[in-house]
Amino acid sequence: MSEARPDSDHVARNRAAWDAQAADHVATGERNWAAGEPTWGIWDVPESELRLLPPADELAGADVIELGCGTGYVSGWLAHAGARPVAIDNSEAQLETARRLQRKHGIEFPLIHGNAERVPRPDASFDLAISEYGASIWCDPYLWIPEAARLLRPGGRLIILVGSVLQMLCSPDEPEEPVESRLLRSQFGLHRIEWPDDGSVEFHLPHGELIALLRREGFEIEGLTEVRPPTDATTRYEWMTLEWARRWPCEEVWKARKRSD
Ligand SMILES: C[S@@+](CC[C@H](N)C(=O)[O-])C[C@H]1O[C@@H](n2cnc3c(N)ncnc32)[C@H](O)[C@@H]1O
């Protein structure tokens, strides 16, 4: 484990916000660690439906870095599938839950306390970098995407799940207020969103800018999936309704691969 000091405004603010809300995420962590099959995002879409992960034969033995692991259940699933995960998170309180759940489930992998924009691991040491609502929204893409490119081996995969750009454009300033069915923010210039309730800072780029950034950092984009809630979907988050998510994509999965040349 390595202790890293938060080194920029958003990292310090997000550390404070996540330390303060870690207790609210224990139940989800416990449930997901215990789940037989991975389920993704706010609608718990089963892996068999979303096909977010690489094929099983590729996962077995793969070196994986999870960027912003929270309670660590994604890495727990990957370890269960035979991968060798390393997980980093900025919040010691979240990692405390992750450590407890590792012990409970008898699955161990390195947990690093630090900033996913600067991971203390050598270049080209991973086959897969993954983030479900972790670095993928809480780190500056102009910092964490180059870092993921550095960490991945040629041909390595990057897989992220994020709240959609459209959702951000329809989100009021107050994060607990329901997302509206009208545009409230500009798309041009979308990058950093500061939430007034807890001071946390979230990042989203318009698709064109994200594509340009990924390509500049040596990635080929393999797919963008706009997530639809399953038939029987429910969510514990009050800011998103099923009606909204049935009409528009509220989540996106991006898959990219680091070029081999
Ligand atoms: C929503 S959780 C993601 C974990 C899990 N997949 C989930 O959806 O609950 C977001 C996590 O990102 C972490 N995070 C925020 N900024 C980070 C940073 N700069 N580096 C690493 N982790 C960060 C937070 O501490 C938090 O645990």
Number of helices: 11
**Taking all residues together, what is the mean pLDDT?**
95
User: What gross morphology would you assign?
Assistant: globular
In what order do the strands lie side by side in the largest sheet? 5-4-3-6-7-11-10
Task: Please characterize this protein's 3D structure.
The protein has 261 residues and is of the alpha/beta class. The chain contains eleven helices and eleven strands. The chain has helices at residues 9-21, 26-34, 47-50, 56-59, 73-80, 92-105, 135-138, 141-151, 165-169, 207-216, 242-247; strands at 39-40, 45-46, 63-67, 84-89, 111-113, 126-132, 152-163, 192-194, 201-203, 219-226, 251-258. Helix 2 (26-34) packs parallel to helix 5 and helix 2 (26-34) packs parallel to helix 6. The two termini are 33 Å apart. 41% of the residues are buried. S-adenosylmethionine (SAM) binds next to helix 1, strand 4 and helix 7.
